[in-house]
Design brief:
single chain, Rossmann fold, ten-stranded mixed beta sheet, 23 strands, 36% helix
């Protein structure tokens, strides 16, 4: 081999990329996901099979979409029966806080789940005024029920839409929504507080368990619908801002809601990733834009009010002792975005012959609750001579001091407690989902009965993006020339303009025609291949790829995209609504890497192992679970009770208190903990490396979850294929038991 050709691997082109390859890789992945988001608008129609031949046929044809939508927003739990609302009164305060000549306002609550009540205000016409309709009126998350009822004077009278509806003869309930402050977001007992908005704090724990702050609040509305449906008066909803979202989704879920107003919310959702993370819905844009959600309401009356929406620059400001919130802004829906999405919606209504039921209204002052919107709502509810009072003067209210913070805390705490109960129940849910459906009677039966779970894991949890669709076009260049091995940077194309990148270490004593095992050595958060491969870099990795190469292994250190602080987290935010995650991309990059490695004449394709630290340990749980060509897997400095780590509020180890807002994976808690992921790796060898002082989790969590794995391998009769090494150290590669494990299971002799 000449000095010129020795600068690159045989069969590859010269690598000429300049600059930071890792950053460039993340940038092109971001572009790839952005293009996929843009394409989702057209592709989502393949998931719909609308039958416009009649309203009945249409309702039946969209039922599967509605059921999937309910699951996506976490609206899945059975509500408690409801026969009445309960007045809230104390020895100090009466339930009724306003009595006008035409209506009363009272504080009420209603039971939704065992741990959860809805709470808000009930507005009723006085006894000699006939009730014409019933309406659930939802203010924005940062507005109190008192604001839209005129009990307080913080809003202009014409924005007090709940008060105006009761004056028109409606019985109105105004629920409280969880607000965007951060007062209670954390655990003061642990000294672990955050600047996450209350909505984000609930979202994080709920998302991991297949629920959502959106779904919880939709359930509160639907509980009111359960109560209202006990009478014959028609039922409507109206909402503004965050309340507009909840009203909109409630009407999409429940056909008993006969007419709806959505104000300051409706628009194209193609850039939902820019909004606060508590609006992140797994797979939303894969199947639903706002127009598609509106098609779940069709042919019922729907009024889109193009009011000025809430404008939020971001989460509460970080300050000492409070940080960790995800970025995200709310801007008022642009008129052109509202109109374009409305036009898409109009197409659905028109094909049903119901275009008269769809309305777009706006007002010069851009405030919610315009007279046109309210009158159209009443007409849609069948109210004869529907008209809201043009007299906008507010009703003076003599109200005793009321502590809204206490009410907000009560509502917030109830949702935390409910979600923590779901966390406690998650193991039994996983048993039903996974363990009760698998068979340990033989290795063959195990793999056969895991097939459906593996498909579900990829499709519904990780998210399946397209396979690599362009030639690999491998490029390489020599970057290390060590006494025992040489190192090459390698770039492989995955999709058009998108590449995978890593460092291959080849022992110098490789003989012509010899094939050796490969260990893929995966770095952690903000890491680089050099961290594992460069013997001159001192770090927690202890250059373990280089150490393995010293002992005769071929090693490959891939660059994974979890680098660049928020750069990769933005990819995750963009990916989630199209039913992808950062691991959707990582799996395909590893797939392409395995293809290329298997083609190399010096690689034994049946002996390729995986060994990852920290975020690389997360990769060690997910990628080998899906790619069977990894002959074994080692999870270092990450394996633990993963669901608890993501969702508990009772331990400082929890991601609930950190800035790693990309960690929750939708409904993972009810499907796959690390024990179940290891089950998808079985019967291949699997090992855990654990330092006693590793701050990822306590030893007890790690040992508890590994017991699940150990029991499985024993029942499969392959106890010798799994082990755990505890060592006296922290978050680092120990390189003792794991190296022995690799030599044993990849059949490589002691050095």
């Amino acid at each position: 081999m000449s000095s010129k050709t020795s600068q690159r691997l045989h069969g590859t082109n010269p690598l000429t990329h300049e600059g930071d390859l890792a950053a460039q890789m993340v940038e092109v992945l971001d572009g790839y996901v952005s293009d996929a988001v843009a394409d989702s608008l057209e592709k989502r129609q393949t998931l719909w099979h609308r039958d416009y031949s009649s309203h009945e046929a249409y309702a039946a044809s969209i039922k599967p979409n509605r059921e999937r939508f309910k699951k996506q927003i976490g609206c899945i739990d059975e509500r408690l029966p409801i026969e009445e609302l309960h007045y809230i009164a104390t020895t100090k305060d009466t339930a009724q806080i306003v009595e006008d000549e035409r209506y009363t306002v009272s504080r009420v609550r209603w039971q939704v789940f065992d741990e959860v009540e809805g709470e808000g205000l009930l507005l009723e016409p006085i006894h000699n005024t006939p009730i014409t309709a019933q309406v659930v009126a939802l203010p924005d998350a940062d507005w109190t029920p008192e604001m839209v009822t005129g009990v307080t004077d913080e809003l202009p009278p014409n924005a007090q839409f709940a008060r105006r509806l009761v004056k028109a003869g409606c019985r109105v309930v105004v629920p409280l929504l969880i607000n965007r402050e951060d007062t209670y977001s954390g655990n003061p007992t642990l000294g672990a507080m955050t600047n996450q908005p209350h909505r984000e704090f609930i979202y994080r724990m709920a998302y991991q368990l297949g629920r959502h702050i959106i779904g919880y609040e939709v359930q509160k509305v639907l509980s009111l619908v359960d109560w209202m449906a006990l009478t014959e008066w028609p039922i409507g909803v109206i909402g503004y801002g965050e309340g507009g979202l909840i009203a909109f989704y409630s009407a999409a879920v429940d056909t008993r809601i006969q007419a709806s107003v959505v104000s300051g919310y409706f628009q194209s959702r193609q850039e939902v990733w820019r909004e606060p993370i508590y609006r992140n819905v797994w797979g939303l844009l894969h199947e639903f834009g706002d127009a598609e959600i509106a098609s779940l309401i069709a042919p019922r009356p729907l009024i889109i009010e193009a009011s000025r929406g809430p404008e939020i620059a971001g989460p509460p400001t970080p300050r000492p002792g409070r940080s960790g919130a995800a970025p995200g802004q709310l801007v008022s829906p642009p008129i052109d975005s509202v109109e374009s999405e409305f036009n898409r919606t109009h197409n659905f209504y028109q094909q049903l012959g119901s275009e008269d039921a769809l309305h777009l209204v706006s007002t010069e002052d851009r405030l919610p609750g315009s007279q046109a919107a309210l009158n159209t709502l009443l007409t849609g509810l069948g109210v004869e001579s529907a008209h809201t009072d043009g007299d906008l003067s507010a009703t003076p209210a003599a109200v005793s001091d009321f502590n809204d913070d206490v009410r907000q805390k009560r509502q917030f705490t109830q949702l935390v407690n409910l979600t923590q109960r779901f966390l406690r129940e998650a193991a039994s849910q996983r048993k039903q989902f996974f363990w009760d459906k698998t068979d340990t009677s033989s290795l063959t039966r195990w793999e056969e009965t895991c097939a459906d779970a593996k498909t579900y894991f990829w499709d519904e949890v990780i998210g399946k993006c397209p396979s690599p669709d362009t030639p690999a076009n491998p490029r390489s260049r020599l970057i290390y020339d060590e006494p025992r091995w040489k190192g090459y940077e390698v770039v492989l194309d995955v999709w058009k303009d998108v590449f995978a990148y890593g460092i291959l270490l080849l022992p110098n004593d490789l003989q012509p025609g010899e094939q050796r095992p490969v260990v893929v050595c995966q770095h952690g958060l903000e890491g680089r291949p050099q961290d594992t491969a460069d013997p001159k870099i001192e770090s927690v990795y202890h250059s373990y790829a280089a150490q393995l190469a010293d002992s005769g292994f071929i090693t490959y250190a891939p660059q994974n995209p979890y680098i660049g602080v928020d750069a990769f987290r933005v990819i995750q935010r963009k990916a989630n609504p199209i039913k992808w995650s950062i691991f959707s991309l990582i799996v395909r990059q590893h797939e392409r890497t395995l293809d290329w490695l298997a083609e190399q004449p010096f690689v034994d394709a049946d002996r390729i192992g995986f060994y990852g630290l920290s975020y690389g340990g997360k990769t060690a749980m997910r990628v080998p679970a899906l790619l069977d060509r990894y002959a074994c897997s080692i999870c270092s400095a990450d394996f633990n009770e993963w669901i608890v780590k993501n969702a508990t509020v009772d331990a400082r180890y929890s991601y609930m208190f950190t800035g790693e807002y990309e960690m929750p994976e939708f409904d993972l808690g009810n499907t796959f903990n690390y024990g179940e992921m290891a089950g998808l790796i079985a019967p291949r060898p699997f090992m855990v490396e654990r330092g006693h002082d590793d701050g990822v989790a306590p030893d007890e969590w790690v040992a508890h979850e590994f017991a699940v794995v150990r029991r499985l391998y024993v029942r499969l009769g392959i106890a010798d294929r799994t082990e755990i090494e505890f060592f006296d150290g922290g978050h680092q590669i120990n390189a003792d038991g794991t190296f022995k494990f690799l030599r044993r299971h990849l059949n490589w002799p002691e050095p």
